[in-house]
Amino acid sequence: MLEKGEGKRRVIFVTDGDRIARKAVEQAVQNIGGRCISASAGNPTPVSGQQLVKLIKQAPHDPVVVMVDDKGSRYKGKGEQVLQYVANDPEIEIMGVLAVASNTDCIEGAHVDCAVTQNNEIIEGQVNKEGIQISKDNIVMGDTVDVLNELENKVPYTIGVGDIGKMDGYDDPLDGAEITTHALQEIMKNWEERKGGTIS
């Protein structure tokens, strides 16, 4: 872990915040030794960008994992607005994003670097809510992901993932939220490779 005060705060975003997603993210963050800002969970996101930045900076160590959610809106909803605000704070560095698939219609979707399936495999391509590969396109379709295309210079690594905490039971928080954990580990691994150091 990186102690508070050692440069920019390092943050991972998860674009989901419902009750089950919160439990899965909390478990996964515990598994990786990070800090979860549970106050960011909600459907839609219940805190403002300013409030979330304050909470991130108060966290005792990195990585800090936060949740954002648009509650199904196909427009730039509360979750995307908060993500954009936090990403533009000069004292925060985004390590990566878990971009969660949903059934929202009429959306652009976002580019991803890879995806994780319900079988916990890292692939090139697109997964649906169940974590099943549905195309070879490196995109994810979800209600809180379109803003990522505007933040390409702020978001170095994006992983597409199915419905956090669900995926036909494969990501059950009671069983360790294995898929969410693996995705967070991949983001940390990518960050370490890019930076040439370790976060733990």
Q: What's this entry about, in short?
A:
The chain is of the alpha/beta class and 200 residues long. Helix content is 26%, strand content 22%.
Give your account of this protein's structure.
The protein has one domain (7-193): 3-Layer(aba) Sandwich (Rossmann fold). Strands 3-5-2-6-13-8-9 form a seven-stranded mixed β-sheet, sandwiched between helices. Strands 1-4 form a two-stranded antiparallel sheet. A two-stranded antiparallel sheet has the order 7-12. Helix 1 (19-32) packs across helix 4 and helix 2 (49-58) crosses helix 3 (78-87). The chain is globular. The protein has four helices and 13 strands. By secondary structure, the protein is an alpha/beta fold.
Largest sheet, spatial ordering of strands? 3-5-2-6-13-8-9
Runs in which pLDDT lies below 50 for 5 or more consecutive residues are none
Task: Tell me the name of the CATH class.
Answer: Alpha Beta
- Structurally, the number of domains stands at 1
Output mean pLDDT. 92
Order of helices and strands: EEHEHEEHEEEEEEEEH
Q: Nearest-angstrom radius of gyration?
A: 15 Å
Helix content: 25-40%
Strand-residue proportion: 15-25%
**Count of alpha/pi helices:** 4
What profile does the largest beta sheet have? 7 strands, mixed
Question: In CATH terms, what is the fold-level topology?
Answer: Rossmann fold
| Helix/strand class | alpha/beta
Count of DSSP strands: 13
Shape: globular
- Name of the CATH architecture: 3-Layer(aba) Sandwich
Through-space gap between termini = 4 Å
